[in-house]
Write the structure tokens for this entry.
Amino acid sequence: MGGLVWYWRSLEFNSQDWDLKWDGPSWRKKLFTTDAIRFDTNDFTTNGQDHSRAGVAYYLVGRANGLGIRESFAMDIAATLAWEYLIEFKELVSLNDLVINSMSGPAVGEPLLQVGRFFRRGRPTLINRTLAAVFSPFEELTAWLDDRPWPGDDQTDAMGFSVERGHQFKAFVNGRTVNFGPGAARNDVTLGIDMEVMMQHEYGRPGRWAGWIRAAEFSRMATSFTFGQGARWVGTIFRTQTTLVGHYRQDIGPDGATGRSRYGHGLLWGGGSGFEYQTRTLAGENDRLCVVGVFGPQMDLTLYRGDLSFRFEIAGYADFAMVDSHALGSDRPADPTLPLTGVLRAQGYYYGYGATGFTRARLNLSWWTVSVEVKAHHFSSFDQYSRVDSPLDAGLKDLTDDRLFALATLGVHPWNRSLGLAAFVEGVGRRGTLGAASRSSREVSIGVEALIAY
């Protein structure tokens, strides 16, 4: 209802997309042809941030009211179609909204739900209740309205958190020096959290078993905000990852030498999805990226050897994306003057398809942690289905973009294994092409980090 009120109160903004009427020809075009299905020309924040939030809300309402993943996904799709065809009856059907709204439900909503459910598995402390409400607000609200009892019945630690469900939580603040190339450097400060849950019962605890896991029981959500000199905002990252189908095998026993530490392994293989929304101010331009990892294979292996543990992950996804063209850089600014034709001319980014590859390795030994994380993207532009086919967009086709992110971290946790310090090196490589022309750049950061890990 709130979205409906906003839509009809914001006519100056929304009426730019009005190409149809409530009449026979418009409905025939919309219902019985594909001529009315097009990529829209809305701004990056609206399409990447606002529409993904709407899809997550649709999905989480279903999950909070007892629906499963498939039923909630169907509800998300139905709500999206109703919005596109009924609320926005004067507009062409937005192809990008259909993808972003529907796929963000399970890709983003399910990791948030699973993190919230982790806290609900513990004791009903103020911390657990607050965090459950933050990450899974609709489930907490419906539980309160229905007067449901607190579901936590797991064994808990001194903080009241479940010890029967695996988790890795981190809150951090870091400072870094960023080098964009000769004569281009700055100092940044980043604050963020990284929340990962393995909701499979008895994950990582001594025991031997194998079987198919419930969907989304391995999920991760991370977000961070970066500021430059003068507290100027220069970047945001929000990313999720979840396993939608998977088989897990675990064989862990006590260390033969001590009889206390763990010795064995855990192996997950399956398929899942992910989501990433990233904005970054570079030396002289912006770099924006919104990626829906529709589906792809995942593997997660953990080895336990006494005080040493080693975890290795690898995943790949087929993607739908919204991308700032690195080939154009700041040379071709957005031109939102009417008529609005293609999104690249109007807003400065393009719609693309492609793939993402991701791998992460983490070694823990007593107080020390070493981790390496690498992610690679490749995207090609959709050159059809623009809102209006126009010669104004003739030079804005046949684009590709590649991004390579790499992060290496060395951390130490001498204070109760929770408080820690880390040093890191991060590199980002960017390459874009427009026809035969190409452009590349790099970004290298060196910094230190204070963190709380649990």
